[in-house]
Sequence to fold (295 residues):
Amino acid sequence: MKKLCVFLVIILCLLPAGLGESAPAGGVASADGRVLELISRSAILMDAYTGEVLYEKYADYRRYPASTTKIMTLLVSIEKCDGRKMVTVPKCSQDISLDSTRVPVYPGEQMPLQDLWYGLIFNSGNDAANAIAYLTSGSVSNFVKDMNQKAEALGMRNTHFANAHGLHNPEHYTTARDMALLTRHALDIDLFREITFSTAYTMQPTSLRGELVLDHRYGITDFSSKFYYPYAQGIKTGYTQMAGQCYVGCADKDGHELIVVLMYCGLTKNEKWVEAKKLFEYGFEVLSQRESKEK
Fold:
């Protein structure tokens, strides 16, 4: 019996965030009562203009956000800093794991802060995340405090950040609903839209390298991809083994804008595009039917 108990404890410790906990009541709901089959363990579809939730699946279940964390990193820095300011990349930019995604940027390089913002989103640069944190708040730890203060101010009740990049930490978690609230607020800022909706950007050359041409096209936003959805825009993907595939994006059609958040959408990268499209099409259909009834 003791060996069995030890085995169960080990298994629970290895499970991704949310697993091993009791699921919250009323975990799945849709605007018209329709059942949508999703592999995502948590998901939400929100009207960006009204805040109405059109679909949710365990949207208040705590999960690891991986690099979708960088939505908050970008938001906090944009609200506090001028992107045109020339900055010097700090040493702490390299305080990341060897297998981290990088822009890359190197200590001592000088560039406009906005180049780091684009590198953060386009290349999911963990080096850029640490640099932005330091340059925005004086230290990475201070920046993380600012992230958590912002989360509290936005009503993100089930969120706690432990870093600026989203690399795995047991104390770094959020929910699909909280990420939708964050994104809805961020979309009110034109510069946030400009960065996260753009598909190409060129970082200026520095003393350590030439110019860097960055590309920001996902399967759902790349017209050459079989997963392309013409109404989709940005915003940020994320992946770690513990978080699974994550995606926060939006779509605009016929005067409506929708936000989708998918958390732990399997382990392979293309499943999230299928599910995002399914949710977007469902949401636009619901809103279109409502408009037809009101006429």
